Amino acid sequence: MAFTFQINNQVKFNHDQSLLNKAAALTPKLKSTVVKPVAIVEPVKDSSKLNETGMKKTDDITNLDKHQLKRDDRVILDFGNHYVGHFKINIRHIGSPQDAPLALKIKFAETPAEFAFNSADYDGWLSKSWIQEETIHIDQLPVELNLPRRYAFRYVELKVIDTSPKWSAIFSDPELTALSSADWNNYQPVKLSDHELQSIYDVSVKTLYDCMQEVFEDGPKRDRRLWLGDLHLQALANYATFQNNDLVKRCLYLFGGMSAKDGRIAANVFTNGDPQPDDTFLLDYGLFFISTLDDYVTASNDLATLRDLYPIAKKQVEVALNYVHDGIYEPDDDYPVFVDWSNEFDKTTAGQAIIIYALKQFIHLAQQLNHDDDINNVQPILDEMVDHSINDLYDIKHHLFVSGSNHEFNVASQVWMILAGVVSDENAKQVMSSMKKELFPITGIATPYMYHHVAAAFFKAGLKDDGIKLLKDYWGKMIKLGADTYWEAFEPENPNYSPYGSPIVSSYCHAWGCTPAFLIKKYLLN
Ligand code: RAM
After folding, report:
1. Which residues line ligand 1 (CB under 6 A)?
2. With the C-alpha atoms ordered 53, 59, 64, 67, is the resulting torsion angle positive or negative?
3. Nearest to 105 by CA among 119, 92, 121
4. 3-class DSSP assignment, residue 359
5. What are the C-alpha distances in Å from 410 to residues 389, 401, 421, 431, 444?
6. Global pTM?
7. How far is CA 235 from CA 212, 232, 246, 399, in A?
8. Residues near 312 by Cβ (< 8 Å), separated by ≥ 6?
């Protein structure tokens, strides 16, 4: 299981200032909410929770200023739910005059699981700098300590490294200013008779809310940036909930304004300060620019934006079709297809299906602008790709699509062929049923991203009960393990799995987990 860094720092990018100005003009004003902690807590061993760690209340929050803390003492504040924002607290001292600085370590955690690990032991491949911990020295108390950085957290540990033998530190008035560009006033709660589905729905909305900042971030703890694959799903969940269509539009302009000189769109962009594209390229993420634009135009009817961004969408088709010959997608490491973090399965057929999926949406866009030439160019290639998929990749005996030279059966191929609408509705049911029979339970897949596509394919194929079961077995299981928001990685057969070897750099509020609201609304409430 791995996602490998790409280093392509020789790639040159376009900066289309008129598109980037439109993105800038759409920068949302973040809404802030003041939140106070609800309890003082301590981690406890709890085998029913993630990493066998739960939390138990040890004191009322109103007693916080009765705690006199000295060397190695700590308190952990519980804010009652996951939030994204800024933290402040008052600190004074009691006893003799302050004859030494207060040295304090502050740790922000999204889950209790993060307390089971010591940051000093982390040696994973992802930067340690993501660890949400600060060590600070305060020479003069009292102080109102306002930390400048934004954190994603539910728990805050205040650990006194040292005071002096002559005095203790006292903490009071902790407060968090939570931020989001989503607006609860635009949100219509849904009532579901199934309580489990209700929580699955609500947690997905909270996940989306916390990821909606100045862009749709992938994870407000980490990586705090805009990824196209994540945006594609967040935008769908947004139409079903907060309907902040301008935020989707802003993100589309950001990607559109910074394509590479060869036309490819970066898989993600950084938006702290002047926007900058990352030098990472994924063929499917590039194509999801088309998908996200098509979904956006369907939701908003905004043809002016379509006109602005159509050339960029068209370019993604041209670039992707460099890897298609005679209707056959030929994978190339120069422009890899992501599909999922796992590299344990062959991605050729899934890649073929994703191209088909995106070409159909491109044609839909072209129709709206009457670009008949483009339709006439693309349609025959699309037909060829569909023919190849049905004639050469579909195994009639097993009712499954094969992938790669070993004719491997894997989940991603079936799911994407169904989502791409390559087979009839009746056949889709057959494929998904065979997939369930032959390839379930899923193993080795750790992303809600891939699980989303599996659930979506069940629903699309009309296998509603299987879709619901997957929602409960996957997202429901995260809730049982203690999730307030959905995680970046979760492997049900190995619940404590972390792609980085330690939960302290994992993101526990991650965009691509936010889709149950979309799936439930689209397939169960309409
Ligand atoms: C990780 C992030 C992100 C995802 C990429 C491919 O870095 O989790 O959300 O889109 O992988």
Report:
1. 3, 218, 223, 227, 229-230, 338, 488, 512
2. negative
3. 119
4. helix
5. 15, 8, 18, 12, 11
6. 0.97
7. 10, 6, 10, 33
8. 255, 256, 259, 265, 289
Q: How far is the CA of 227 from the centre of ligand 1 (A)?
A: 7
Burial class (CB in 10 A: 0-12, 13-18, 19+), 406: exposed
Q: From ligand 1's centre to the CA of 193, what distance in Å?
A: 34
**Which atom of ligand 1 is least distant from the CA of 488?**
8
- What distance in Å separates the CA atoms of residue 140 and residue 92, rounded to the nearest whole number? 9
Helix axes 303-321, 17-25, angle to 10 degrees: 130
Q: Are 28 and 181 in contact (CB under 8 A)?
A: yes
Q: How many CB atoms neighbour CB 475 within 10 A?
A: 30
Q: 526: closest CA among 273, 243, 169, 240?
A: 240
pLDDT tens digits for range 139-197:
999 999 999 999 999 999 999 999 999 999 999 999 999 999 999 999 999 999 999 99
Residues 140-149 pLDDT 10s: 999 999 999 9
Residue 234 in tokens:
């967040």
Atom of ligand 1 nearest to the CA of 268: 10
Q: Which two tokens stand for residue 273?
A: 């300060």
Of 298, 357, 292, 304, nearest to 511 by C-alpha is 292
What SS3 class is residue 470? helix
Share of the chain above pLDDT 70, in %: 99
For 388, list phi and psi in degrees, rounded to 5. Answer: -60, -40
Pairing of strands 74-95, 151-162: antiparallel
SS3 512: helix
Query: What pLDDT digit, counting tens, does each position of 360-386 carry?
Result: 999 999 999 999 999 999 999 999 999
Residue 132's SS3 state is coil
Q: Is the dihedral of CA 397, 400, 402, 406 positive or negative?
A: negative
Nearest to 361 by CA among 445, 447, 292, 460: 292
Kindly provide the b/e burial profile for residues 253-284, where b requires at least 16 CB atoms within 10 angstroms of the residue's own CB.
Answer: bbbbbbbbeebbbbbbbbbeeebbbbbbbbbb
